Amino acid sequence: MSSQAYDPGAEGAKMNFKGAMSYGDYLHLDTMLDLQTLRSTAHDEMLFIIQHQTSELWMKLAIHEMAAAREALTLDDTTQMFKMLARVSRIFEQLNNAWDVLRTMTPADYTKFREALGPSSGFQSHQYRLIEYVLGNRNINMLKPHEHVTEVHAALSEELKRPSFYDEVVKLLFTTLDGHTRNMPAPQLDKPHAADPAIQAKWKEVYENIDEYWTLYELAEKLVDIEDSFQQWRFKHMYTVQRIMGNKIGTGGSSGVSFLKKALDISFFPELFELRTQL
Asked: Cα dist. 226→93, 162, 177, 195 in Å?
């Protein structure tokens, strides 16, 4: 057994990157790794910052995939749409698993830097809000925290002017079953989607005739997968907050755990869950 250190260069690996793009160059690691600015001397503040920064990166990817999935749906490219929706579910699972790391922080750890957060809070995440808007939970009250950032407020407002991803799905549902959309309920562009008996009846027809409407059935189950993983993310968020800070008022002034519990009652695709009782 040789004691000589392995040299990848001897097998052809590039080792000199002067004038060439390296791994760090491509990912802008010098910039990215310089963005963890601590506002206290608390050891766990680094964990808190990285947890939230990486979550925002995963949310950026989720938005990228959902936008492409909506475009694919309007172009009747279901193969690509299914691939993107499956990826969105996995992204939400990744976000979900990240809470396991944050839960290693104790209440005593969090108390050491909580005041440094000021009035900042996770509910002010514009990417989280955009995800909810794209999927159909369109609470216009949540626009207010973003009024001070013109481009962000404009992007969220613009999303409220177009049909949500689920609205496009419902359009496909009625077009496939009826051949038209004349009986389709009008999209609620500026309010949360609520369960509609007409939409639920159409989904019931799909689930009772799976072989005939297999594409719609598969799409419905993809949506259930997304809601499942997203709800688990919501629940782990709520439980993590409860474990670390109990029932204190949130840094942004919300009711904290109580505020997060309310989100657990929100469904993006309520008809798909309510029809299960009828089947």
From this structure: 9, 21, 24, 17
